[in-house]
Amino acid sequence: MRAILFNILIIFALASCGEHCEKNCLPAPSQNGSHQLGFFLNNKTWVPKDKGYHKEFELPQPTIDEDGLVKISATRVDEENYCRNWFCIEVQNPEMKTGIFPIANETCKNAYQTYYYGENKDRTSLTYDIIQTEKNEIEFTKFDLDENIIAGNFSFTAVSNQSDTIRISQGRFDLKLQE
Fold it and tell me: Residue 72 belongs to what domain range?
């Protein structure tokens, strides 16, 4: 009887771990162009999600200009809080190689933004700027222009226009570049 109860407990524990992972896990690390991005925003999972309203903005949008400015952006609709979140970081990588580089937003005015709509349309939008005195960097673990794949990790701290601080940690990306 104890063996049966023990097996049932193991099954429930494994099932609950799978449920938890679906709700609070990042995409698996990879370097094959799977076109995924995710990070923890104040210890909660953030992955792009749009629900079809503006599908062109949902997926990560990586670009590289002729001067080696790498830009990665994505959006997410948060229906529970009636808002759209926008994420955007940039780094100068003129040699287009692997390594660690400081995040230096130039055309991305804000690293993170929240715009409210619907029931919350009267709330003030939040715009977050990177705190330059903190460690804010991207590590490119793959930079393959032949295959149009960039992959790596990132983290940063930012403060909002209302003095609210956020921490983005364990960020990871495996992206196909726009051709």
Answer: 29-176
